[in-house]
Amino acid sequence: MNETKKRIIEAAIALFTEKGFHGTSIQEIAAHAGISKGAFYLHFKSKDALQVEIFRYYTSLIQEEMVNAIDPGLSPEENFRRQTEIQIAQMQRHTDFIVMVIREQAYSLNPELIEFIEELRISQSEWYRDQLTSIYGESIRPFVHDIYVITEGIKSHYMQHFISNPQALNPEGLTELIFRMTAQAAEGFLGGTLRPLLDEETLRTLFSGFFPEEGESEELTGVIDAMRTILYGQALPRATVQYLLSTLDFLEVQAQAGPGADLTAIEGALAIFRPYPEFGDCLRLLEEKFGADMHN
């Protein structure tokens, strides 16, 4: 990754953490990174694309360290412990990223990002499968998904509790706790005292129907892009343009949300454009396609 791209990512993390995803403009990210807005678009086609790259960047940092931590001379249990501690230490070092994720939860409205998150979940689940089968054998396979959810849930919630003071967290202590809880869960499932709640079929259907039909989403995005073109042609104050662009970014995210779209928020966003007659035709199309009635 080149230095400019890295600066953009780090600037965006800082601003998203402070102001939120929708409250931060591309111009602000570019200024914080010390580049022009045009230079931003040389590296990222949109703010949504940047958001995906942020997740890829931080994930790659963790995965690289985990791979380097594997020692063939150690037992499977010890390698599992070492890699778990690295995950926790990385999260401890990058609490700004975690704050952004907790604050926004915006990935649920970004199709490209939710696809990446799902790939990451599968990859992490496969890592648990490999670790657990190396420790307990093939008999643990039917329970891997449940153990993954239990273990990751413990890790995530502890990290959230320490988010305001990450240095107070003891990575070795949390690693030991996770290691022991993972072992207890595995023994409970293998011993028949616990029954799994997740299987492959259940996991395959978790995200079905989450997004709208592709044609509908693309049509909404096309109207929003037309509004951006109209906006760039208006003689409006710079602050107003930035505010309207941020509102269009929000509408585009909602266009991808399908059943999860917030119609009340959409109505409010569309109302912002009502004082500008140039957007009239586009607004009518969006009202119709979103199903939002601003006049009630």
Structure at a glance:
Residues 25-44 bind DNA. The chain is mostly helical and 296 residues long.
Report on the architecture of this protein.
With 296 residues, the protein is an all-alpha fold. It contains 14 helices and no strands. Helix 11 runs antiparallel to helix 14 (280-290). The radius of gyration is 23 Å and the shape is elongated. InterPro entries: DNA-bd_HTH_TetR-type_CS, Homeodomain-like_sf, HTH-type_Tx_Regulator, HTH_TetR. Residues 25-44 bind DNA. This is TetR/AcrR family transcriptional regulator. Residues 2-62 form the HTH tetR-type domain.
Which helices and strands, and how do they pair?
Blueprint: H1 3-19, H2 26-33, H3 37-43, H4 47-69, H5 76-93, H6 95-104, H7 111-136, H8 144-161, H9 171-190, H10 200-205, H11 214-232, H12 238-255, H13 263-271, H14 280-290
Helix pairs in contact: 1-2, 1-4, 1-6, 4-5, 4-7, 5-7, 5-9, 7-8, 8-9, 11-12, 11-14, 13-14
**Helix percent band:** over 70%
Overall average residue pLDDT: 83
Can you say what the CATH homologous superfamily of the largest domain is?
Answer: Tetracycline Repressor, domain 2
End-to-end separation in angstroms reads 50 Å
Count of DSSP H/I helices: 14
**CATH architecture grouping of the largest domain:** Orthogonal Bundle
Q: Write down the domain tally.
A: 2
Give the biggest sheet: none
